[in-house]
Amino acid sequence: MLKAEERNIDCVESGEGPAVLFLPGSYSTTAAWRQVQRHLRPGYRLVTSSLSGYGGTTDTRTMQDFGIAHEVRLVQELARHIGQPVHLVGHSFGGTVALAAALSRSVDVASLSLFEANPLPLIRGYGGGRLHDEALRMSQAFEAAVNTGEAGAPARVIDFWGGPGVFAAMPEAVKAYCRATAAVNVLDWRTDFDFEVSAQDCAALSMPVLLVRGGEANPAMVAITDTLHGSLPDVRHFAVDGAGHFLITSHAARCAELLSAFLAEVA
Asked: Which of 121, 185, 219, 264 is 20 to 30 Å from the Cα of 67, by its Cα?
């Protein structure tokens, strides 16, 4: 655990070498990256955290103040603790936070690896905005369901990204954690949609980027990764066959293979 000025931050470390900082997505903790890390080639200092409100990481956001700067400050504190340039790796909302940290220019990011990152404002104008607006309506319905105490509210989000029935198939302990942190996920959606990012912003990033999505990703994710692929100047783009949104657990070995090859090239 890292004790920062205004919060506690999950911080799990192992190994030595160039620093690789892993950020999980919503509803996740440091455990989310464990399987990928087991398959990763040795020779790196692996640092893993949890985003605001998950695991042991304090949430400094409120319903009145939910800007992504809160999450970027978390990454800044972790980078300060690490004390060297970081190869920043994020999944889902963690990928959005990683992108925001790189764009902030306040963290020394050696490379960026984004697994199903979901910066939804990027596709506001994609295809007339239909995919963006569908995601926004889903998130608003999810927030209303959380506010009324709907027990199955997390399924609205999990199945949106992963497909019908994904939440129902999860272990009971995982479903219970999702229910317990549903209000945090409401803030995540507000933070994501409030994140002002454009393709032009992404085009200004000079570090090498690994961009990975599931081969069975939902249409919004396909649009996001296509936009990132077309914008980032130094990018390697892969779709993992047979994988959906939760590819870092369902296809951990393949994700580790892609990440290992990328790090061997750029670290």
From this structure: 219
Of residues 157, 164, 151, the one with CA closest to residue 187: 157
In a domain, 175, yes or no: no
β-bridge partners, 23: 90
SS (HEC) of 117-143: CCCHHHHCCHHHHHHHHHHHHHHHHHH
Give the span between the Cα atoms of 123 and 223, in whole angstroms: 7
User: Is residue 165 included in any domain, yes or no?
Assistant: no
Asked if pLDDT for residue 5 goes beyond 80, the answer is: no
**Is residue 235 a part of any domain in this protein?**
yes
For 197, the token pair is: 């990012």
Residue at 211 is within a domain: yes
Please tell me the distance from the alpha carbon of residue 107 to that of residue 101, in angstroms, as a whole number.
6
Range of the domain at 96: 2-121+196-266
The predicted structure's pLDDT at residue 78: 97
Any idea what the CATH number is for the domain that residue 77 is in? 3.40.50.1820
Computed over every residue of the chain, the mean pLDDT equals 96
CA 94/CA 118 separation, integer angstroms: 9
How many domains is the chain built from? 1
pTM of the model: 0.97
Residues whose CB falls within 8 Å of the CB of residue 178, separated by 6 or more in sequence, listed in order: 27, 154, 158, 167, 170, 185
How far apart CA 263 and CA 208 sit, in angstroms, is 10
